[in-house]
């Protein structure tokens, strides 16, 4: 995987998408093969890798800004500045003092993304981050994520069940198969942003990914050097 690349992983339930993401995150070390970050094997979680879960995992008793700062003190001017910057990036300015229960699902997920961005990760790992959101909010979140990606030039690895989401966002789509751990195809998406799901070229990719998901023949080895 190239630095700054956006990769989406798609595949049927139980094929090992989350497991692959956890291995990249360093959260799962029981595997065979090698996963490298900057040519070094990944053996544990670190601040170079931000992880976004499907559910936001915010602390309900902390405000938005304290959730984002986490163990860092907001009294430090550089922390305050960073928190304000990431809040602006995820478009939550004005909600600094709100509590998670006062936020919508999409807003809570924005806080979770901001919290990960605070640590300036080289790679953001997203495990179906918009799976629980309604279609309208989901679209907004995809646009926000693209905006963050284009401004920060970090690598992104997104696990999704949604073919359109993968085509809308990714430079490359990894199609996994139902047998755990199998990568069936790597499909580069040669479309410029912003991408339009109603375009014929978008539909061609949709068909290609659907074919790859249904095709049991083609199996490729995956190299995951980030
Ligand atoms: N390569 C593998 N070899 C053996 N078992 C695996 C492998 N990959 C995943 N598994 C096992 O398969 C199960 C499902 O894996 P995982 O949760 O990663 O799938 P998923 O594709 O993310 O599913 P979902 O889309 O439903 O979240 C887990 O119990 C996991 O330990």
Automatic annotation (TrEMBL):
PROSITE patterns reported in the protein's UniProt record: ABC_TRANSPORTER_1, ABC_TRANSPORTER_2
GO MF, one annotated term: ATP hydrolysis activity
Keywords of this entry: ATP-binding, Nucleotide-binding, Transport
InterPro entries the record matches: AAA+_ATPase, ABC_transporter-like_ATP-bd, ABC_transporter-like_CS, ABC_transporter_ATP-bind, P-loop_NTPase
Keyword flag Nucleotide-binding: yes
Highest rank taxon of the organism: Bacteria
Gene3D superfamilies reported in the protein's UniProt record: P-loop containing nucleotide triphosphate hydrolases
Residue ranges constituting the ABC transporter domain according to the UniProt record: 1-203
Tagged with keyword ATP-binding: yes
Pfam families reported for this sequence: ABC_tran
Protein name: ABC transporter ATP-binding protein
Organism: Brevibacillus fluminis
């Amino acid at each position: 995987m190239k630095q700054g690349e956006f990769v989406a992983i798609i595949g049927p339930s139980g094929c090992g998408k989350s497991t692959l993401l956890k291995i990249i995150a360093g959260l799962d070390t029981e595997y065979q093969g090698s996963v490298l970050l900057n040519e070094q094997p990944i053996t544990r979680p670190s601040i170079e890798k931000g992880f976004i879960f499907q559910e936001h995992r915010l602390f309900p008793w902390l405000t938005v800004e304290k959730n984002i700062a986490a163990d860092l003190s907001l009294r430090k001017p550089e922390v305050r500045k960073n928190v304000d910057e990431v809040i602006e990036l995820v478009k939550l300015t004005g909600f600094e003092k709100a509590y998670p229960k006062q936020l919508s699902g999409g807003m809570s997920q924005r806080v979770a993304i901001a919290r990960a961005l605070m640590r300036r990760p080289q790679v953001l790992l997203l495990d179906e981050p918009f799976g629980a959101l309604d279609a309208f909010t989901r679209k907004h979140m995809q646009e926000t994520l693209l905006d963050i990606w284009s401004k920060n030039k970090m690598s992104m690895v997104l696990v999704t069940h949604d073919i359109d989401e993968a085509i809308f966002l990714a430079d490359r789509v990894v199609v996994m198969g139902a047998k755990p751990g199998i990568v069936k195809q790597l499909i580069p998406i040669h479309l410029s942003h912003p991408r339009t799901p109603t375009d014929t070229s978008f539909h061609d990719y949709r068909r290609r990914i659907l074919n790859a998901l249904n095709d049991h023949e083609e199996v490729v080895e995956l190299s995951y050097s980030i």
